[in-house]
Each structure stands twice: as structure tokens, then as C-alpha cells.
Amino acid sequence: MKENLPTQKINSSLATLNFDNAFVRELPADPESSNSLRQVHRACYSRVLPAQVSAPKLVAYASEVAELLDLEAAACESDAFAQIFVGNQLLPNMDPYACCYGGHQFGNWAGQLGDGRAINLGEIVNLQGERWALQLKGAGLTPYSRRGDGLAVLRSSVREFLCSEAMFHLGVPTTRALSLVLTGEQVTRDMFYDGHPKEEPGAVVCRVAPSFTRFGSFQIFSSRNEIDPLRQLLDYTIRTDFPHLGEPSVAVYLQWFEEICRSTAEMIVHWMRVGFVHGVMNTDNMSILGLTIDYGPYGWLEDYNPDWTPNTTDAAGGRYRFGNQPQIALWNLAQLANAIYPLIEQAEPLEAALQLYGDSYKQGWQEMMAQKLGLKEFVPATDLPLTADLEKVLQLVETDMTIFYRKLAELDPIDEQDDDSLLAPLLDAYYHPEKLSKVNKHQISDWLRTYLHRVSQDGLSTNERRQGMNAVNPKYVLRNYLAQLAIDKAEAGDHSLVNDLLQVLRQPYAEQPESVSFAEKRPEWARNRAGCSMLSCSS
Ligand code: AMP
Ligand code: MG
Predict the structure, then answer these.
(1) Which of 14, 155, 457, 469 reaches 20 to 30 Å from 416, CA-CA?
(2) Beta bridge partners of 136
(3) Do 293 and 212 share a structural domain?
């Protein structure tokens, strides 16, 4: 049995973390508490203890997340912090557990999945009265570990830690990351499943979110026809995470589902805005709070290619490619609708809610595109063709999406210019500006003229337009190769780039002239390097 830390030995703000473990208190538990692999029926979770590791070492922590938990810097920098957030020691009132859930993987029902390497420590209520669940990723075996070892490596943990925080600062709904701690143990991974296993440093990320409940948390019960726990989980979720909906009833279940349709649409609009590709949108990786969750083989669009997926497992089918994300979210929502159908028994209102997803997505996308282009509002008559043509222009030649929109803000709607001078401020967005043909230049310039004409009709001052655009088009995103450089250094024992990136990504819309190298387009060496353009689920 693990020892609880004597409270007097640890920093006061760690000792006063106010745990209130409603999830385990109110929901049905698996009666068994070993971590042996098993099918768990009629239960939302299994109690489980994190594994002991030899030499925990803090790599980085996010001070903003610490603040959410009312933790001071001194607490985060203490030895006890690394011990606790690697899973070596428990605080009084932590009650660790792994959740049971199922899911559709790549469109096929996969049965029971569950937290195979995530261990929840419990929920705290902070001084503002907010509830935050704390979860260690990579802290050892659980009943749901299937063929895995319950562990995570530094490579994938750096990616999860940095991307969670980058997304938050970009204004994209996401789970958060408090800390990244090395375990001191080596973990064997065959990164591309090609018979070349390698030892990698093990690490644990502490994720933080109001709730980690997924679409698959409901699916598992309905797939087994376990209607009582299905209702218990839904009622609990409504009371805890959606209290504004009122007491659970069939009508409230429908409102709940409608709200998820809306928040999921909003999340996907944000992904499309910043060029984020999740990579594994299985239903077990879909949060009921519309948060981006489970950062695995995700990637950021460099050259604008709606068919791109970073996930090598998905390379052939491209199910989770950038341009397919809105459709997949709808498919996933339909699976959630099926899962709660036994509590509602009416198809029509569920179908209407799914329709609402489509409507919210369409409206959200149009508003987002208007903002990206610096327009007061999206006027379908002019802006549907404008955005459709932009989609083509961005794919004529390799064009960096992030740089393109930043540079677009710099253009002035001035008098007639020839193609070359019109294009000059945008050249940096092109991977091979020297290869732009005359025809390409003309096609792009044509679009720019139409765009600048639309802008001049719109009546915003150039300054207002520029400010508006630069507030939604980031200068800094977690470029795939930057994450890889941070990983390379961290694996060699130098954590500085992880921390430097965290710092720059705190203000992704600010110019930060001292950090411009982080805004540069992907260098040639990274074009085909593993980890930069191709990722696997191995993590
Ligand atoms: P993911 O694709 O990361 O969402 O994972 C799908 C399922 O596999 C989830 O149930 C995970 O908990 C489980 N899983 C992934 N990696 C491991 C691992 N190293 N050990 C145990 N379970 C894992
Ligand atoms: Mg997952």
C-alpha cells in the first residue's frame, strides 16, 4: 500500500489541496481493486494505485494550471511535487482510480477500452469553487491496460504537455497539463511498429480538466445493455458538469446532448482556425465538455493540405485528415446519440440535435473565416465564393497556413499593383517562392485583388482589420518540428527548449520579436523526419 505524505512535511499549498472526490463517491465502483486485466461490468471506475518509480525529476510545469489549483511556485518546485505528480506518493484524500469506457476506433466498435495508462487522483475544489479533476498519464498498469504497459515516454509526454498549454493560450477548448515529470525508468517502444524497439525515458504528465468523461464512457454501458449505470452516469454528469440544465429528466437529457453538439462544433471550428489535426478522433477521445483531449499523433498544418493526417496508422484511409474533422465529429456525436437512446427512446429529437451540430458548425465556421480575413461579418453572397477560391489558392503550391494569414493582415487595399508587388509581402508563406510560376502568381494575385476589394468595401480601417486578424490568426503554433527539437534536447537531458516553447506559446498572437525563429516555416530537414511529419500511436 502506498503511503500518504505526512502533511506537515510538505509545502502548505500542496497540503491544503481540497479534494472532493464526487466521481468515486457517487458512481458505481468495480468491487475488485487489483490491477489485473479484466472486463469490468456495471461500474464507472476501478480503484487502482500508481506505480512506484525510481527517480522522479520535474521537467516543466505550467504556472497557470498551478494557479487553478491554488498552488504556489514554491510548491511546484518542491521535491514533494515531483513525487506526488509522478504517482510515488499520495496526498491525504486522494482516491486514485481508472475509468471504464469503450469506443469506436477508426469507425469500428472496439468494446471496452478504459484508462489503460491514466490514473485519476481525484478532484479538487479550488478557492473559487471550481472543480478540477487531476489525472496522471503514464503512471502504470490498470485493469484497462490491455496489451500495454501503462507507461508513457518523454517524447509523447512533451508533446501532450506543450500542446495542451499551446491550445489553451490559442483559445481552443482543451484539457490542461499541470506538470511533466521524468520517472527515471526506461520504457521500451517500437515507434513505427517495424521491429526496431528502443529504450526511451519514461515520463508522467498530470492532466487537469473539469471532467475526463468521454463519449465512450456512455457507449460502454449501452453496448452491454447496462441501463442503470448508464442513467447514473448521465444524471451525475448533468448535476456535476451541467448544473445550469436543472434536475435530470428526459427533456434535460436532450438539452444536454444539444449542448454537446454545440460545444463540439465550436471546438472543431477552433481546430480548423488554427490548423490543428487531432489524428485519432476515436469516440473514446471525444470529451463531453467539447475539450480537445488525448494528444497523441496530432499535428499542425504546415503547408495547407486538407488531406493531411500526421498519423501513420491512418495514412492509407485518411479518416482523421484535417478536412474530414467536421464530418467525423458528427459521426462521433451520432454514436453518442445511439448510446443515450435507451434513456430517451425517441429518435427524432436526437436527429434534430445532430442537425444542430451541422448548423452550429456552419455558422461558427463562417464567423471564424470572416475573422480570419478581417471582415466585419460573413456575407454569403460575396464570401462563399471568396473562401472557396481561397481554399484553392492555398493549395496551388506549398503554402504555410499560419504565415499566410499573418502576412495577409499586412496587405493594404491600395491602388492597382502588378502581380509581383502585390505578392511580395506574402512570399515568406511559400515553401518554394522561387518555383511560383507566372500562372500561379496570377491566380494568387487575382484572389488577393478580389479580397482587397471586399476589404475596402467593408469599411474597417486597416488598423482595425489588422488587429482583428492578428487576434485570431496566431503567429506561433506548436510546429511539428519545434516539438521534435524540444524532445531531442530533453532526451539529451536539456529541458530548456520545452520551457522556452512553453513561454513563447503563452502569447501566440503577440509578435515577440525576440522569438521569431519559432515562427519560421518548417525547415527542409524536417520534411520527412519521423516525429515532424509522421507520427505513430506508439507513445
Ligand atoms: P489512445 O489511442 O491513446 O486514446 O489509446 C486507446 C486505448 O489504449 C486507451 O484505452 C488507452 O488507455 C490504451 N493505451 C494506450 N497506450 C497504452 C499503454 N502504453 N498502456 C496501456 N494502455 C494503453
Ligand atoms: Mg484515448
Answers:
(1) 469
(2) 119, 206
(3) no
Q: Check if 284 is active-site.
A: yes
Q: Whose CA is nearest to atom 12 of ligand 1?
A: 116
Q: Which residue has the cell 512535511?
A: 9
Please give the tally of structural domains in the chain. 4
Which residues, chain by chain, have CB under 5 Å from ion ligand 2? Answer: 285, 294
Do the beta carbons of residue 206 and residue 136 sit within 8 Å? yes
Residues 254 and 341 occupy one common structural domain: yes
Which residue range is the domain that position 494 belongs to? 480-526
Share above pLDDT 70 across residues of the chain, in percent, rounded to a whole number: 98
* C-beta 171 within 6 A of ligand 1: no
Q: Indicate whether 137 belongs to any domain.
A: yes
Task: Give the C-alpha separation, 486 to 492, whole Å.
Answer: 10
pTM: 0.97
Does residue 149 sit in the same domain as residue 12?
yes
Residue 2 lies in a domain: no
The verdict on residue 468 lying in a domain is: no
Residue 321 located in a structural domain: yes
What is the mean pLDDT of the segment spanning 64-89? Answer: 97
Name residue 334's amino acid. A
117 in contact with ligand 1, CB cutoff 6 A: yes
Report which ligand 1 atom has the smallest distance to the Cα of 114. 10
**Confidence category of residue 414, pLDDT binned at 50, 70, 90:** confident
Percentage of the chain modeled with pLDDT above 90: 92
Expressed in angstroms and rounded, the spacing between residue 323 Cα and the centre of ligand 2 is 21
**Which residue CA neighbors atom 13 of ligand 1 most closely?**
116
Report how far ligand 2's centroid is from the alpha carbon of 271 (Å). Answer: 18
State the Cα–Cα distance between residues 430 and 485, nearest whole angstrom: 22
Question: Is 227 in contact with 253 (CB distance < 8 Å)?
Answer: no
pLDDT at 8 over 60: no
- Check: CB of residue 535 under 8 Å from CB of residue 310: yes
The confidence score (pLDDT) of residue 192 equals: 78
> Residues 213-217: what's their mean pLDDT?
98
**Ligand 1 contact, 537 CB (< 6 A):** yes
User: Quick check: CB of 110 below 6 Å from ligand 1?
Assistant: no
